[in-house]
Amino acid sequence: MKKIAAGVLVMCLLLSVSGVFAAAPERVIVVFHDNPDANLVGQYGQVERTFHIIPAVVAIMPEEAVKALSKNPRVKYIQPDIIQYVTPMQMSVSAEPLAQVLPWGVDRIDAELAWSTSTGAGVKVAIVDTGIDMDHPDLVANIKGGFNAIAVKGKYRDPDNFDDDHGHGSHCAGIVAAVDNSIGVVGVAPEAWLYGVKVLSNSGSGTTTDCIEGIQWCVDNGMDVISMSWGSTTYDQALNDTCQAAWDAGCVLVSSAGNNGVETPDGYPSAYPSVMAISATDSSDNIASWSNYGAEIELAAPGVSIYSTYEDGGYTTMSGTSMACPHVSGVAALILGAHPTYSNQQVRQTLWNTAEDLGTPGWDIYYGYGLVDAQAAVV
4-27: per-residue pLDDT in tens? Predict the structure, then answer.
């Protein structure tokens, strides 16, 4: 299902096309066929960092240097550092509720009916996003660590401080694993372990290089599930290669399909073969009017008026495929809690096989294999 048009790929990767790189120095990702060579890249520009999840070096260099370096036979391709965005629709922010509520999305996918079999206890779920509110009373018991991948001039601000200064990541984290207690909300997998991997700033945007760094951290630290509620409409080969490497390492990768109301591929990383693309439904099981659809959709999940945790210990209602994605990430955690020896492909297949078929019988471009079903998935 996940094929990228050759023309799109060529447009994004050919460095000789006028206008791909501006005349002024820009940040680029230099990907090698074999081992990354920072010394070689340093002869053409200012090296910022080197990756090992893919053989790549990030550097600042002018257009002419990019053209010259691209001719080196060791270089596979060079691409711009693309901007990634979150695109939720925030509706309201409130203080902590007096008593815990079961959000309609968690209820609709029958997550609470799965808890007698699995709560996702001990399953490592990385929220690769704007971070997580590190001391939120409804999340802190499940937060086990994290990483701040955002860099300034190649140097990390504070790698151990993944606190959320936007709110989006905390909202997604609550959908996955808000604690089952007496306050706020409860998540799909209320005993899963949460890891905040901050790759997006307080503006809700970030770069491909920061996202690669975050995914690399996930692989290095043994994350079971990587939840990514962000993306770009620009095809990104380096990010594709990184996601494929994470999949090959055994991670389950889940991503929001995008909120442009158009047929995919329109959103990446969700359209990559290694990543599950999730569309959004409302409380009547209709696909949201703004949800992307198309051949890349694998599953649907609740994404309209979703109440969850927020920054600064608060709670909020948001809508978007950003909210649908963590519902599926949470169910993946429930599956691994029930079947800890499952491979990522077995988890993916289980999600397909147990989804509640909606829309046209069988797979379709709006719901994929259907609405994710937590209770059926853990049997």
Answer: 433 333 333 333 333 444 458 999
Of 110, 91, 109, 112, nearest to 100 by C-alpha is 112
pLDDT tens by residue, 301-359: 999 999 999 999 999 999 999 999 999 999 999 999 999 999 999 999 999 999 999 99
> Which tokens hold the place of 138?
């409804």
Catalytic one of 37, 81, 166, 168: 168
Task: Take residue 298 and report the two structure tokens written for it.
Answer: 């694998």
- 248 as an active site residue: the answer is no
Cα distance between residue 18 and residue 22, in whole Å: 9
Joined tokens for residue 177: 């694993």
Fold agreement between 19-81 and 84-377: no
| Res. 93: pLDDT tops 80 | no
Question: In the predicted model, what is the mean pLDDT of residues 21-38?
Answer: 88
Q: Quote the pTM value.
A: 0.92
Which three-class secondary structure state does DSSP give residue 321? Answer: helix
| Contact criterion met (CB below 8 Å) for 324 and 281 | yes
Query: Among 1-10, 43-52, 133-142, 363-372, which stretch is predicted with the lowest mean pLDDT?
Result: 1-10
- Calculate ∠ Cα 342-324-249, nearest 5°: 35
**Nearest CA to 103 among 299, 337, 304, 255?**
304
Given 37, 129, 163, 241, the catalytic residue: 129
* Closest residue by Cα to residue 332 from 272, 291, 373, 279: 373
pLDDT category at 151 given cuts 50, 70, 90 is: low
Question: Which residue, chain included where needed, has tokens 């372990």?
Answer: 193
Q: How many CA atoms lie within 13 A of 282 on its CB side?
A: 7
Residue 16 designated active-site: no
Is 168 designated active site? yes
Q: CATH classification of 19-81, choosing from 3.40.120.10, 3.30.70.80, 3.40.50.10190, 3.40.50.12780?
A: 3.30.70.80
Q: Architecture of 84-377 per CATH?
A: 3-Layer(aba) Sandwich (3.40)
Candidates 180, 322, 327, 373; catalytic one: 322
